[in-house]
Amino acid sequence: MFPKKVYQTRRQLLAKDVESGVILIPGNSEAPANYADNCYKYRQDSTFLYFFGLQDPDFVGVIDVDKNQDIIFGNDVSIDDIIWMGPQRSVADKAARVGVEKTKKLSELPKYIKAAIKAGRKIHYVNPYRYQVKILLSDLLGIPVAALAKNQSVKLIQAAVSQRIVKDKYEIAEIDHACDIGYAMHYFVMQNCKPGIAEQTLAGMMDGIAMSNGSMVSFATILSQHGETLHNHDHSGIITKGRLLTVDAGAENNNNYCSDFTRTMPCSGKFTTKQKEIYQIVCDANNLALQLAKPGVAYFDVHVAVYRLFAERLKALGLMKGDIDEAVEAGAPALFMPHGLGHNMGLDVHDMENYGEDYVGYGSAAKRSKKFGYGSLRMARKLVEGNVITDEPGIYFIPALIEKWKKEKINAQFINFAKLKDYYDFGGIRLEDDVLITKTGNRLLGSKRLPITVKEVEEAMKG
Ligand code: GLY
Ligand code: MN
Predict the structure, then answer these.
(1) What's the pTM?
(2) Which of 94, 179, 248, 299 sits CB 3.0–4.6 Å from 445 for a disulfide?
(3) Whether residue 207 has its Cβ less than 6 Å from ligand 1
């Protein structure tokens, strides 16, 4: 938890931007996995964490903009709770630590909201992503669950995004820490990836490093020799000589800040020439993004620059052909990288994605492209100091996609389909680093960069 002044200042700024009404920020409750008392690991809502800082379930935060008052609604524990959970601080005590003086019981929330609605005041909320919270808001506001999305407060979303998209020094220290845990996770896999070991063993041990140094993984670990499937959560394979292993994983530390790294390694410990050729292109693309990303540059343009590099280099390899400018304009490199170059990262691994990707990654200045590949970019904005983004170019050979483009003659003037036949069992390569935009450029987050050159990776894999 940060000093209480941090949360007070954030709430004041939010209230100023929202201008009037009541801001309603529900925290999360426990989420049952298979029966009420057997829950998934508890995760507080990120908006609640950002503005109210507390990690406890069943709290609701209210910022009464008109009355200049912050309130936390929550219940003190009973003796029954103490028997099972141990002694707990009072709600008032917890609230005071984040600079909130007024607390009320949860049972008082409906009356409070009803009175505000009756007085004609606007209730600002963000459309919930959890069903429990949808039901809570639907009951409180008298709005059917299906209508919650269209009645959410765009003003609240825009105000929250404008604060959260620029990280302060406390957040940067947390993200650096989450990145150090991410480093340990990935380095472990590099040292232990050997033919014969199960993907599941590597993935489980990697997740254990996240849990033993922080809260948990920042998203479900991707660890697969089928890296051509972008989000492959299947870990049923056995590490096999000659294949590539793509590992995309990160940690969430105890203060809920995230990291997100991807590395790709040769299962045998040494890249083949064919693997090295593609690997070097992706590695150069990752470094090109680092060269270009600085305040004033739109991340969309960095994504375009990566597509251009892919077009040039894949043409040199004989996998693409034709005019480079035209190929980039048409989005032909999206056959190899159908996803975006990166996203914001912070309390969420895809930071604030629950607000809607366009509010976060585009804002009012940029518009999402409708073209395949370009349209998948989550962060297109002009970069500013304090942004935390990922740099994650990749080249994938997805047989089903290649076959579709071939059959439908999509960008046929730029793709050498005949030569691609030799790559159907190649897999995919992605290399992802986490980047802080500084005053004049950027720096990598975490105290050390994971091995990334061919030589560094092969060296780390010697174990
Ligand atoms: N690293 C997973 C993702 O960005 O979606
Ligand atoms: Mn990512």
Answers:
(1) 0.97
(2) 179
(3) no
